[in-house]
């Protein structure tokens, strides 16, 4: 929490206002901006200052106060309204909530109740505002069919980003029922995304970090649920909120997904700053990738954010890449070769990108990381692409054009200057 939350009190009793000030005086995350002794003054101050929190004493009878809450909600919809009351009429809580109050505190207000309520608001604010563009970048990997290397690339890209730039990287296993990034990282996480999603009222950046499992490469893993049935109650909205929160603390959030078009996967695709679509050069994969690209277009995803990766290419990859570009009518952003060292690395639980082997695939991950890093502007061509520098075919505008909604600019491909 950086900026303190602004707070305004409306209470006719100066002693009670003073008591509230006392309760908050050592709490640096709240700043009491103003106070009012009557509803009318309070209403005008709220309208003018738009504070984060309004504490309003309902008085007895409660009706005039309830009407004021309804007006406050209209003039300052982003203010959280806390009601204080003697609590003698049980129906008042319901009436206050219906009028628009977020918290109900019985007088005399205890410090614990007040701070708990304030912290709840602070966390909600953090979740809503946790994705300013200047912070991290969410990179979501998706493959329309399983077995094409989506997870392998997610794992190694996360490691390469952490290794190359020494910045904090989070890896999120969103293959909720079948994820095994924990195994591939050789980690034993105590918690999972299920624990985070089930505790959203407590989750802030710090709490979320405590649920991650750290890998020596500098990657922190938010693992898939340990039990299959724990995937079920995780709501799509929770996924967006968790990813946004991670984005506020990590330079990169690399998300591995399952090859399904369910709402939870779509949530991760929606919030992605870069969406890496993994395909293989076989016809079945290309067919499904074409259908997927059509869907992305109907979802109005910015074509700039969707980048096509072609994995398990024969060496040299030229023909495979050309065929893919012809079928998909868009440039291939990156090609990865088929490589035997993958199996050895998986058995050892040691990501290739750590660099323990003399794998050529490992070098691909660090160059791709550099290409995706927004600070990096000039990346050398991988040796196998050097001869064809500048010869990547421009995408045809044929079929794609029919679905197009936004102006299309050609995404850069593997060797082009950024
Ligand atoms: N470039 C590659 N070379 C060799 N094997 C690969 C390559 N990419 C992926 N594999 C292997 O293919 C299998 C499926 O990969 P995985 O990453 O689990 O795919 P997905 O997440 O798309 O289902 C794994 O055994 C993986 O090691
Ligand atoms: Mg996978």
TrEMBL record:
Domain Response regulatory residues, every copy: 6-122
One biological process term in Gene Ontology: negative regulation of cell division
UniProt name for this protein: XRE family transcriptional regulator
GO cellular component: cytoplasmic side of plasma membrane; cytosol
One Pfam family, short name: Response_reg
Keyword Transcription: no
MF (Gene Ontology): ATP binding; ATP hydrolysis activity
Positions where 4-aspartylphosphate occurs in the chain: 57
Alphabetical UniProt keywords: Phosphoprotein
């Amino acid at each position: 929490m950086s900026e303190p939350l602004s707070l305004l009190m409306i209470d006719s009793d100066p002693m009670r206002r003073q008591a509230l000030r006392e309760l908050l005086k050592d709490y640096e995350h709240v700043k009491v901006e103003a106070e009012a002794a009557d509803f009318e003054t309070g209403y005008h101050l709220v309208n003018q200052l738009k504070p984060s929190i309004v504490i309003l004493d309902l008085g007895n009878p409660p009706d005039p106060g309830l009407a004021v809450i309804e007006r406050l909600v209209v003039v300052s919809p982003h203010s959280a309204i806390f009601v204080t009351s003697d609590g003698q009429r049980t129906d008042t809580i319901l009436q206050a909530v219906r009028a628009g109050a977020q918290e109900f505190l019985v007088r005399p207000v205890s410090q614990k109740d007040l701070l708990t309520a304030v912290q709840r608001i602070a966390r909600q604010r953090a979740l809503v505002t946790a994705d300013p563009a200047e912070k991290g970048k969410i990179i979501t990997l998706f493959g329309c069919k399983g077995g094409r290397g989506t997870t392998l690339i997610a794992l190694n890209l996360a490691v390469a980003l952490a290794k190359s730039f020494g910045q904090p990287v989070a890896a999120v296993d969103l293959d909720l029922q079948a994820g095994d990034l924990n195994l591939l990282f050789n980690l034993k996480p105590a918690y999972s995304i299920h624990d985070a999603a089930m505790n959203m009222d407590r989750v802030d950046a710090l709490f979320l970090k405590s649920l991650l499992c750290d890998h020596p490469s500098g990657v922190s893993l938010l693992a898939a649920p340990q039990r299959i049935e724990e995937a079920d109650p995780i709501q799509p909205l929770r996924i967006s909120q968790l990813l946004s929160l991670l984005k506020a603390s990590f330079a990169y959030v690399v998300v591995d997904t399952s090859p399904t078009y369910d709402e939870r996967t779509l949530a991760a695709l929606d919030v992605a700053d870069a969406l890496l679509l993994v395909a293989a050069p076989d016809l079945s994969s290309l067919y499904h990738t074409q259908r997927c690209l059509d869907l992305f277009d109907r979802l109005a995803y910015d074509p700039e954010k969707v980048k096509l990766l072609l994995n398990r290419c024969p060496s040299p990859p030229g023909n495979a890449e050309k065929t893919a570009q012809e079928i998909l009518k868009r440039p291939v952003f990156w090609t990865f070769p088929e490589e035997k060292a993958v199996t050895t690395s998986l058995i050892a639980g040691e990501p290739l990108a750590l660099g323990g082997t003399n794998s050529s695939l490992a070098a691909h991950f660090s160059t791709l990381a550099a290409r995706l890093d927004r600070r990096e502007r000039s990346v050398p061509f991988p040796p196998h692409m050097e001869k064809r520098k500048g010869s990547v075919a421009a995408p045809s505008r044929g079929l794609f054009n029919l679905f197009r909604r936004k102006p299309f600019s050609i995404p850069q491909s593997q060797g082009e200057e950024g």
